[in-house]
């Protein structure tokens, strides 16, 4: 029997689809996002295939987006990765193409508001807020993409929903939830975690419904802990310790500041709170090492930038286990610093932290922790020579070097240098993304 002959138009479509599939398989084998960006600029056909969302989703699973720089809370400035960092050229291209002044995001119309300030950064998007003077818990929120200059203004969390719980919360911390593997990449969710006297409440905004809802409200006692003590009011845009310090690992947020020897955990897929123990025993052992006091809040010989927010550890993690990196060091002159690397296997019971390694950090720096994301721990540091100079004369600013430590390889890389006012507790957020030609999410 003769094979059926496709009409000319059908054959053309079939060959076109086959050619696209072959191109996709070729492009998936490119080693870096930069190489993919170069391929996309070669011709219109390549760009059409490469910018297709399903293809980009496949590529991201194989080639995680590169770290391009840091975004500071105050003013929201983007600080690109600087040479010799491998992402320096891409970071400069992003800085030239994007608007990190957020001038394209209009202000709400209810009275005078402060400038937009970043509160969280994820998937190339920035969560912004600004406040009505004199109304601590009345803030405007927006989600934007500085590259495409698209934005969404969020309605405020209903005031009656906030106060109906137990009056005003001690803390209200908004975060951007990550986009799930099977979710539409154009959608997003914002979660506001509210810390009350007897419970914690999660208010969730969905870009699909354009509404807020109360998704979880467990009591502190049901989580096996007491109400966190000693936390400041974290409603201002600069952030502070407490629920404003969260690291994201595989769909869950982990508090970077433990209380009662526990970390608070929020599963963003099910919107469920839980806690995990911080008991490892290794910190007590390391405290007894000569010249190695734990670099945490309240244990400093001299006051230096970031010390009042150097948290004891950050959960980062890979498949099958949680990983905790704790900064241990001596803040006295010429003191040394190390990272204590511990893991906890989710499949084991009881879950216990195991000591994997102690990673020495290069000398000449006084380090403090900044945060963790995407398998990296972020550190800031001031040089000893700068410290010595600042102790003999009054200066208004510090030059702070920022570093990333990749958990998988323990490799430390310098990202950039920022000049900041002395004793400034401004937070920074890592920005991961693709080159401008590839990353234009719709918001």
UniProtKB/TrEMBL annotation:
Query: Pfam family of this protein, just one?
Result: F-box
Gene3D superfamilies from the UniProt entry: 1.20.1280.50
Q: For the F-box domain, which residue ranges apply? A: 15-57
For this protein, the record's InterPro entries field holds: F-box-like_dom_sf, F-box_dom
Protein name (database record): F-box domain-containing protein
- Superkingdom, taxonomy of origin: Eukaryota
Q: What is the lineage of its organism?
A: Eukaryota, Viridiplantae, Streptophyta, Embryophyta, Tracheophyta
User: Which PANTHER family does its entry note?
Assistant: OS07G0554500 PROTEIN-RELATED, OS07G0555100 PROTEIN
Q: Which organism is it from?
A: Triticum aestivum (Wheat)
